[in-house]
Amino acid sequence: MTSKNQEKYPAQEPSMLQKVVDKLEKAGDVVQSKLEAAGHYLESEWNKHNFGPVLNNFVTGYRIQLVSRASHHTLQIVEGPSGQLTLDGKGEIGAHAWNAIWTVVNDGNNQVQLYNNNNFLAIVNGEPVVIQVDVFQGNGAQIGAETKFQLVLNGDYLVALQSTVGPDRCIGINEDGSLKTAQICASSSVNSLFGVLLIKNPENAQLEDKK
């Protein structure tokens, strides 16, 4: 059986402006069909102890999709022209889009790490990237601090992913689905906001298996 670690990520599509199609309604009550504009910047200490319905999805082991407020598509891993894995905000919504599903590691204080297979979401030198770390192969690999994000809540249904290394740097998506440079992406920006769709709750799956 071929594991997902051996699956080939889809090729990156050329960046082009396209008509925004609202797919957020398909996400049910987790993602609102009408999203409000970004609010004020939330300070660090408040972020660590804040609570909102969207944060219920960031539990270790949960598998989620991040639906961009700007592009109305999901944050996904794709293969760039050079063969290197990269990110964009053009992914599909749904469990079939395996390259747009992120597994959560919650480190407490509303700080998380997100990975797809062994590829961790990170911000390095001001740019959103994926870092491959074979932490599940028993080789002693360490996950760097650049993979840790502070969850910045905006309302009850939107969240930004802010670097814990560079507090003014966030994962951001442009309207056409291309990446926004993290150095100019504040957590209060529309480009930084994501709705969250819970794809799999391992606890519920275990209950279903016992029925």
Distance between the termini: 27 Å
Order of helices and strands, N to C?
HEEEEEEEEEEEEH
Q: Estimate the mean pLDDT confidence.
A: 78
* Strand content range: 25-35%
Integer-rounded radius of gyration: 16 Å
Number of helices: 2
Question: Numbering strands along the chain, what is their spatial order in the largest sheet?
Answer: 1-4-5-8-9-12
Query: Per the principal axes of the C-alpha atoms, what is the gross shape?
Result: globular
Unreliable spans = 15-43, 206-211
CATH architecture: Trefoil
> How many strand segments?
12
CATH class value: Mainly Beta
Instruction: Give the CATH topology.
Output: Trefoil (Acidic Fibroblast Growth Factor, subunit A)
Structural class: mainly beta
Sketch the major β-sheet: 6 strands, antiparallel, barrel
Oligomer: single chain
Overall number of structural domains? 1
Helix percent reads under 10%
How would you describe the overall organization of this protein?
This protein is mainly β. The protein has a single domain (24-31, 39-210), classed as Trefoil (Trefoil (Acidic Fibroblast Growth Factor, subunit A)). It has 2 helices and 12 strands, in the order αββββββββββββα. A hairpin with a 3-residue loop joins strand 8 (149-154) and strand 9. Residues 15-43 and 206-211 have low confidence and may be disordered.
